[in-house]
Each structure stands twice: as C-alpha cells, then as structure tokens.
Amino acid sequence: MILIGGGSRSGKSAAALKMLRAAGPRRGFIATAQAWDDEMRERIASHQQERGADIVTIEEPHALAECIAREAGRFDALVVDCLTLWLSNRMLSECADLEAEYGNLLDVAVNARTEVILVTNEVGCGIVPDNALARRFRDAAGRLNQQAAERAREVHWMMFGIGLRLK
Hints:
This protein is of the alpha/beta class. Helix content is 47%, strand content 22%. The protein contains six helices and seven strands.
C-alpha cells in the first residue's frame, strides 16, 4: 500500500495517477466523492475526463474496504481518491464505529492482491475549526492518516505539485 497526502490542489491525485499508469495496463480508480450539487457534478466529470478511457472508474462513497477486496484482482493497481472524502461520507452517515471501519479498510488495503494507492488530504495544518463536527472530522482524519502512514510501504507528501517521499 502507498499513501499520498497533502493539502488541497497540492498534486496528490496527479501523483497517484502517474503511479497507477506506471503499474501496468490494468488500471482501477475508486472514487469516493458524491455529487451533491451542480458544482460537484462538474468537478467529478472533469476528473473523469482527466483520467481518460484507460482507467476504469468505480464509484464507491461508503463500502470502500469491500470494494477494494472485490476489485483488487482485476487490476495491476488501484487508486483510492480519497480517504478524507470517504471519511466525511461515513461521518455524515453517522457510522457507529469509525475507527473499526478504517482499521478494516487499512487491513484490506495492505493485504490486497494488487498495489493500493491511497490519496488523502492533510487537514490539520490550518486553524482550529470553529464547530464541533469540523473538529471531530479533523481529529478523525489525523488518526486515519497516521494509521495509514504507519502501515503503508511508501508515504509521499505533496506540496505545490512536488512530491517528497517520507517513507
């Protein structure tokens, strides 16, 4: 498993796609975003066009571990973009035990029959959020990212489109 993190528009997805294309011809992409409004629908369509026809996209906003387990054998590598959107989806659905879910997700990703490239946002570098839900999200994302980094074979930090391998 490889983890790629960074801030918004730091180049995380582009780095993940570059790794995916280098992994082989059977390329899978698990998208966790949900199209709640027109702006998000346009954003999703733009990302699909950027990926191109050579990458199979699977949309899965909630059952990420199950999707990785089911799809891993079909691909030379799988990108999951992104963990933080998946986490917000799970929090908003009032998931009973987030830490158990992301523990299971990481177990599945580490043991998958293919390379799994996880993309995540670093949300803890800014100011303390002004509401309880945002603070819970920031804290949960920090715990998830730390656990993913600990278990990953490689960890990359993206900033300004430049990647730095941390592990």
